[in-house]
């Protein structure tokens, strides 16, 4: 792969492969190595835009700080020209985007408009999220670990979402029910350290759900008073169920004939 042309003028076998085959090969490389192939030739520079996974954590720490703007410019080109990209997965954490919030917001918008399948964002700060994040028809996996409020609109449209992880959010009255019941294909729901009004019913209704994790153990120290909310779970096809919280006023659970594993912790 180091040589483009042999002394006899014959192209090496790798470079002679068609673009779809080369793109398939690149899909097995990590983000950093896939981007490095762009130095091989102008043709490989074009192919590096065919990354299917953009994982900042996998590559940003190996980029010297003075060169990180160059990498961010590469991401700009990758995301803002969706017709030249086949990006399916976008992962980023607070450490890897260096607090460049406005740029991150633009990247998320571009990824959503480009038909992204998976978004995984983690931040120790409150982030502004695009209003159309929860109406993206292409999303299959959405993982958000972000401090602050999440505004669940009255109309949620995530028809292809199968995996939803939310951590450290403040959820408003009834927003969990509205969000989950709008995801008709949802199979895995994980809510960790999620704040919600403790004087209402915590209601989850999903016929498609197979894995449910409600882990609020880390919030227990903040709630030493009596709690008067009721946990209502209607998920008859659950296979895995984990629940960790203080004792609620009441519980209403549907029959779970498929349940194979349950981990219940009441503190």
UniProtKB/TrEMBL annotation:
InterPro entries: F-box-like_dom_sf, F-box_AtFBL13-like, F-box_dom, FBL60-like, LRR_dom_sf, LRR_FXL15/At3g58940/PEG3-like. Residues 11-63 form the F-box domain. It comes from the Eukaryota. This is F-box domain-containing protein. It comes from Hibiscus sabdariffa (roselle).
